[in-house]
# Entry
Amino acid sequence: MPARVINSDLMEYIIMNNFEFNTLAIRTGHLQTNEQEHSEAIFPTSSYTFKNAAEAAARFSGEEAGNIYSRLSNPTVRCFQDRLAALEGGESCVATSSGMSAILAVMLGLLKAGDHIICSSSIFGTTTIFFNQYLTKFGVEVEFVDLIDLSAWEKALRGNTRLLFAETPSNPVMDIVDIGALAAIAHTNDSLLVIDNCLCTPALQQPLALGADIVVHSATKYLDGQGRCLGGAVVGNKTLVGEAVFGVLRTGGVAMSPFNAWVFLKGLETLNLRMKAHCENALAIANWLDQHPKVVKVNYPGLKTHPQYALAQQQQSGFGAIISFEVIGGKEAGWLVVDQTKMISITANLGDTKTTITHPATTTHGRIDPAQREKTGISEGLLRLSVGLEDIKDIKADLERGLARISDKEKGC
Ligand SMILES: *Cc1c(COP(=O)(O)O)cnc(C)c1O
# Structure
């Protein structure tokens, strides 16, 4: 009988045996303490003690590896970082206090005044505002292009273009870009490709394997999966993420709390199972909405009518669970559907087991210039659903109450 693998031997065993996704999601990163606990321990400690003055000096000088202070490293957070790095197929992961601080850390770590970045115009609302109002303040030029127009990305390249930033599928209109093709465009110019992989998670899409240089996450969404904690992460190679982005965490202090890391670890264990169930529910709801007389348009990559259906099939192992759809009758009708729900949560969060609904034009994307909003497909009648894991029949009934009340007279508006 071979000896059981415990403690740090387990990590070596995992690497040597090329574990598959679910095993990595459940086993990676756990270094048992002498208490031999089965579930990962939470280490709620701000700092760590040293055996003596010499050890303290060696840790601070970097001569000896080890914990110093929880802004820099924490065992529970490290476990989450190792696990997510394994799932994304990256060398290094830096966990942060939120998805936005993950994006902030990438930009502070990799950009300097005079740099130019190109960003998809179809992107999480707060990311747009962060780029426009804050990055520009420090002399970084930001240019927006249509996510799916590869020639527009190519044309926007300049000598000082440090990075390209995209979200695919994009929130809330579910456009999809070919990550491999976009990476090739970035690399001809020695620029980096950063992908926000929030909507797919590594269970459905692994951007690094497709050619992206860096992946950012809002762990708040599917990685947690139950709407409990804020968190974020950056994954990539040792130089870009392990050194440059980590440097921002170390000095800028956007660290993840150990408690949140522990919650995310539990979320990761069921990530693949949950994503499969989310996708199944979302496809059923999208097909139903697509046939609905009060619905003008459904944006869901799993519908054969979606313009990038083939690309989604090739690049993703599932279509995700975010659907946006436009009702006849504009904002008034959209608000009616929202207000008639009794079960579905009216909240801007997504990636929860609970189905949520939002009216993007007046909430998540309300602060964006109306012209830019319309251009990216966020019309007044658009609603976004994050399809949860309740039973399909109950989700449909909750939506139907409002949809049935939209006047037929609105048709064609
Ligand atoms: C929510 C979200 C973010 C921001 O994450 P927070 O954890 O809320 O800071 C970034 N990108 C996408 C696609 C998101 O959905």
Q: What stands out?
A: The pocket of pyridoxal-5'-phosphate is lined by residues 98-100, 124, 127, 167, 171, 196, 198, 218, 220-221, 230, 232 (CB under 6 Å). The longest strand covers residues 161-167. The two ends are 72 Å apart (CA to CA).
